[in-house]
Amino acid sequence: MAIRGRKPKPTALKVLEGNPGHRPLNKKEPLPKGRLPRCPDWLEDDAKKEWKRLGKVLAEMGMLTNLDMMTFAGYCQAYARWKGAEEFITQHGDMVRTPNGYLQQVPQVSIAQTNLKIMLKFCEQFGLTPSARSRMVGEENGAEKETDEMELLLRG
Fold it and tell me: How many other C-beta atoms can be found within 10 angstroms of the C-beta atom of residue 49?
């Protein structure tokens, strides 16, 4: 079921703005620890590179566990296909002239658009957008657990 209403601003941004709406801030945004699952052998090369790049970050945030292997593999594969389509468009252009003389969009344009939409859906699931992170609730992020002064300032 879809979440209704406007996507919320990230809590850190609300704090920086002085919480103009004076609504309660989400003090339970997650700061969990996770574990990077093993990268599947069947992923494309660019997907494996994205797995290594982003997987490490997600695991450190606690947003990636062994249970998330299939979902994260889907994101990485969509990334590889999107990247390949975008590289094709950059090299060859987005239009081709048909034998009848008409201009037609190359299939890579819709491949890129479709995979970008898929990637963005996965990004929301893994908290890779600011609004997605602000909706998440983890354990209490109390000041006693935070040692970094900037984190204390951003969290309020």
Answer: 16
Does the pLDDT value for residue 11 go beyond 50? Answer: yes
| Number of Cβ atoms within 10 Å of the Cβ of 62 | 16
> Would you tell me how many other CB atoms lie within 10 Å of the CB of residue 124?
15
- Cβ-based neighbour number of residue 60 at 10 Å: 14
How far apart CA 57 and CA 78 sit, in angstroms, is 18
Q: Which comes out higher in pLDDT, residue 3 or 88?
A: 88
Task: Please state at what angle helix 45-61 crosses helix 69-92, rounded to 10 degrees.
Answer: 130
Q: Residue 103: beta bridge partners?
A: 97
Q: For 85, left (φ over 0), alpha (ψ -120 to 50), or beta?
A: alpha
* Residue type at 51 in one-letter notation: W
